[in-house]
Specification:
Distance between the termini: 35 Å
Number of strands: 7
Number of helices: 5
Order of helices and strands: EEEEEHHHHHEE
Strand content: 15-25%
Largest sheet: 3 strands, antiparallel
Helix content: 25-40%
């Protein structure tokens, strides 16, 4: 079944690692085959990856933007996922993490990222942090370019950082 995307004027999206920007008018795209796609509103900026679950989301985001993900990036994902699996104790949360692993094994990092949204909200509640506000297209972000990511690699235990930069987009994860 095709994917129908309605894009606002100047909205950005990432398709198979390439940053694309819509022109000055609202438009609709229909994607008829599988592609790794991420809309601007789903991008997590590096400074916002400040909790363990958000760091896992950030790694998945890097995997989505760098198809196929490098072995080092996969190792970082496995490590972060294992650490979260040890940290969470509620059955519902562990089930979400199992589903994330299953979806990643199928190669769909975007769906895995979306599965993490409830865990990110739960984690914010546990840590007494404000709920993460996912930025919608058209909302200016005064501190960062709309799709700029990861000026420095996120720090995780384990493997060395991996970095890829292109078209004003910088992605880094360990």
């Amino acid at each position: 079944m095709p994917l129908k995307l309605k894009l606002a004027a100047h909205e950005r999206l990432i398709v198979n690692g390439a940053v694309m920007v819509n022109g000055g008018c609202r438009t609709t795209l229909i994607i008829r085959n599988f592609a790794h796609i991420m809309r601007e509103k789903d991008v997590l900026q590096e400074p916002d990856a400040n909790t363990p679950t958000k760091r896992l989301y950030f790694i998945l985001q890097a995997m989505l933007m760098q198809p196929p993900p490098s072995e080092a990036l996969l190792g970082s994902y496995r490590l972060a996922h294992a650490q979260l699996s040890e940290a969470y104790v509620r059955h519902e949360n562990l089930e979400v993490l199992r589903e994330v692993a299953r979806i990643v094994d199928l190669g769909d990092c975007y769906k895995a990222m979306m599965k993490l949204h409830p865990l990110i909200a739960y984690e914010a509640e546990l840590l007494n942090l404000p709920k993460h506000e996912w930025r919608r297209s058209g909302q200016p972000d005064a501190t960062q370019p709309a799709v700029a990511m990861a000026s420095q690699p996120a720090r995780f235990q384990g493997s060395a950082p991996v970095r890829r930069e292109s078209a004003g987009l910088s992605v880094a994860a360990e």
